[in-house]
Amino acid sequence: MKVLVATSKPFAKVAVDGIRKEIEAAGFELALLEKYTEKSALLDAVKDADAIIIRSDIVDAEVFDAAKQLKIVVRAGAGYDNVDLASATAHGVCVMNTPGQNANAVAELVAGLMVYAVRNFYNGTSGIELMGKKLGIHAFGNVGRNVARIAKGFGMDVYAFDAYCPKEVIEAAGVHACASVEEMYKTCQFISLHLPATDETKNSIGRNLVGLMPKGAVLVNSARKEIINEEELITLMQERDDLKFVSDIAPVAADKFQQLFADRYFATPKKMGAQTAEANINAGIAAAKQIVGFIKDGCTKFMVNK
Ligand code: 3PG
After folding, report:
1. Is the CB of 102 under 6 A from ligand 1?
2. Ligand 1 centre from 56 Cα, in Å?
3. What is the pLDDT of residues 14-57, one digit of tens each?
């Protein structure tokens, strides 16, 4: 039984060692394809793989066609918009994610982005503090909940809106539950996005919402670039010189953002939220265990293409 770790953005070595231990203890073989840049390398590596562990790596119909022995793909992380689920199902392949395993890492990065933004990107000028400011968390999943916990440590006043999470769950975390998404954007100077990229959410964050934010607004995106309506955000930032945008992934129009708003915009060159040794270990080893559980016991917990 061959398990392939295919990561264009590799895990920390310590995480790969942990994955190897799990896989070999089960009597399986581990293969590594790290830092690959060409799809052809992935297509070649998957040929004899029974299972694959990936991160944001694109697994589409062509990959499933090439992977004749494939039984399971585990996305070591939360978002699985990089996997063609319909094609996986058509090929009889189980797809899982490892929810929550990298959530604290992403949440800590959000805190860092907020500080970076309000201290004017450390340019030597006076900024403002986070304490006492209102933060709205858009989608209250694993990352959103960790952001709430950390933001409370800063003394922020935390709000959340999640169309799929009961108000009681939000309130039990000591967070104000907003009755509508508009109400949250109207109330909060800071908004942190934690929506998955779906047909419903793509392009959904634009003038309609960001335009409602109060003066000195800071929009933080550690989710997916696809959820932002970039054209509308650019126009809004041109109209409002108080609006800042910080992102853990370059938007499609990164050059334009940089050129127009050099003092109010920042994006990490590579998605960095989950890039900690701890998150790599947590998500990588969870992925390995889920593969062993699936192959040996038929366990389908965390399957996302049911
Ligand atoms: C996730 O969906 O888990 C995060 O966006 C992290 O993605 P990465 O594993 O590609 O860094």
Report:
1. yes
2. 6
3. 999 999 999 999 999 999 999 999 999 999 999 999 999 999 99
DSSP string, 221-239: E-S-GGGB-HHHHHHHHHH
| Rg, the chain, Cα only | 20
Which of 16, 34, 55, 106 to mutate to test ligand 1, by most ligand atoms within 8 A of the CB atom?
Answer: 55
Q: Beta strand 29-34 with 72-75: parallel, antiparallel or unpaired?
A: unpaired
Q: Give the closest residue (by CA) to ligand 1 atom 6.
A: 274
Count Cβ atoms below 10 Å from residue 109 Cβ, excluding itself: 23
Instruction: Report CA(231)–ligand 1 centroid distance (Å).
Output: 25
CA distances from 231 to 253, 260, 300 (A): 9, 13, 41
Share of the chain above pLDDT 90, in %: 100
Q: What is the pLDDT of residues 73-130, one digit of tens each?
A: 999 999 999 999 999 999 999 999 999 999 999 999 999 999 999 999 999 999 999 9
Q: Is the CB of 55 under 6 A from ligand 1?
A: yes
